[in-house]
Design brief:
Structural class: mainly beta
Strand content: over 45%
Shape: globular
Distance between the termini: 36 Å
Number of helices: 3
Largest sheet: 5 strands, mixed
Radius of gyration: 24 Å
Length: about 450
């Protein structure tokens, strides 16, 4: 008996040591234990945002869908289902809580009300950890341009709703105009004073006086304008700064610690040529004043910006892809003043899109090849943007979404359709610095 107990203790010790020496994990999770949907009812949990809280845990936000014939209104009334959700996963990959997302009270949409969030009203790319240990989400609510509102929701570390606001276009004003309809948000960051800055667009009316001989007429049209808006801690609008030189919605943005930001937009086709698109990068200070504007591109191809990073050395990385018969991954490093430091174009595989990408500890870069649904491929670049290695992982179906760093390596958000997923579930993956992952993925329930 003593010998059996001794052998058991040895095995327990080795298991603990193995666990400590192998901190890699893959956690699959979803909301089926709350909504009760079965695999044949196609429960889809599609993650879209990832952030890390002050306690080192992760918040994942996403949207939900299904093909069930049952009426889900009863589940919604019981707060057991919504079109948007958030989940907390600890630093070891263990689920902590799952929340379906609702408004604090029904939102008046001029003839009907909404009390549930969806993909648009809680967009993953605006998921932001806050200095008080909680997080915020933002987006737009309403399906029509005339009644659409900007949404802002703040939560504590337990996922409980602290405050939410739904702002109309008319609340965003500057230089003699206020928004009329269709507010949209393209960038959000928390400032050191716990207020927020956001890049917002609104549609508004523009009147122009036309004189022809002795006749004077007024012509009216609608224009979409962009404003850099200051929000209070609770999401209410403080003031807005009109940005006259921004003509197109940005493809990607990045924040600077001083409250400024940088963005990249794609130009329209030039002279009707389908193979000609360039990229414009613009940097603004904390007040929305343009610091510089640069155009990058080559004739006969389409350069498409996908991501932009504020680097540890103060420089900027633009990542994207090149289309038009010369497909390649495109990396461009810029100085704080927008001058080109280096540029690389290299064929890697798939669609030749690296999305997402993050700076590595050696000031190189680590990214995931954006192949859509297929084997996940990690790619490592050196500090000059040249590929060092790539690693193809298992044959699971992934859609990489976000990458963060921690003391162990990289944390990657994706989704998977393969077992042990119920149907389509979120998956959070802890890698080491060399892009290695655990052999198995485990589906874990929430407490």
């Amino acid at each position: 008996m003593k010998r059996i107990l001794f052998l058991f203790l040895i095995l327990l010790f080795h298991s603990a040591v193995f666990s400590q020496n192998n901190p890699l994990w893959q956690t699959i999770f979803g909301g089926e234990q709350y909504n009760g949907l079965k695999p044949n009812e196609c429960p889809e949990e599609l993650p879209s945002g990832l952030t890390v809280l002050k306690d080192g845990s992760y918040i994942v936000a996403g949207s939900a869908n299904n093909c069930s014939n049952q009426d889900t209104n009863a589940l919604i009334e019981q707060k057991r289902y919504s079109s948007a959700w958030a989940a907390k996963i600890d630093s070891s990959g263990n689920p902590v809580w799952w929340k379906y997302l609702f408004t604090s009270k029904p939102v008046d949409m001029d003839g009907y009300t909404i009390n549930v969030h969806n993909f648009d009203s809680y967009r993953g790319k605006f998921l932001t950890a806050t200095q008080d240990g909680g997080f915020v989400g933002a987006g737009t609510i309403g399906s029509s341009t005339f009644n659409r509102k900007l949404s802002f929701a703040k939560h504590d570390t337990k996922g409980e709703l602290v405050t939410d606001r739904f702002m109309e276009a008319k609340e965003f004003c500057d230089e003699g105009f206020c928004g009329l309809e269709d507010p949209q948000i393209f960038h959000l960051q928390e400032l050191s004073n716990e207020k927020f800055r956001g890049l917002v667009s609104v549609s508004h009316k523009v009147e122009k006086t036309i004189k022809e001989g002795n006749t004077t007429s007024i012509s009216s049209s609608y224009k979409t304008s962009f404003l850099y808006t200051l929000f209070s801690k609770d999401g209410s609008v403080k003031n807005s700064k009109y940005i006259p030189d921004l003509e197109f919605a940005p493809n990607t943005t990045a924040a600077f610690p001083d409250g400024g930001f940088v963005l990249a937009v794609t130009t329209n086709n030039v002279s009707g040529k389908e193979s000609q698109r360039d990229v414009i990068v613009q940097r603004y200070d904390e007040d929305g004043k343009q610091l510089w504007k640069k155009k990058f591109g080559n004739p006969g191809v389409e350069e498409l910006p996908i991501g932009i990073l504020n680097l540890s050395d103060g420089n900027i990385l633009l990542s994207g892809g090149i289309m038009g018969g010369k497909e390649a991954v495109w990396l461009l490093k810029l100085s704080p003043q927008g001058e080109t430091i280096w540029e690389t174009k290299q064929k890697i595989g798939g669609f030749n899109f690296i999305d997402p990408i993050i700076e590595s500890p050696d000031q190189g870069f680590f990214g995931v090849l954006g192949n859509g649904e297929g084997p996940m491929v990690f790619v490592k670049f050196d500090s000059s943007g040249k590929k060092v290695w790539e690693k193809k992982q298992s044959q699971r179906l992934y859609m990489p979404n976000e990458i963060l760093k921690n003391e162990k390596g990289y944390v990657i958000l994706a989704y998977t359709k393969k077992k042990p997923a119920q149907y389509i579930d979120a998956i959070l993956i802890q890698t080491d610095w060399d892009g290695n992952i655990s052999k198995e993925a485990f589906r874990k329930n929430f407490p």
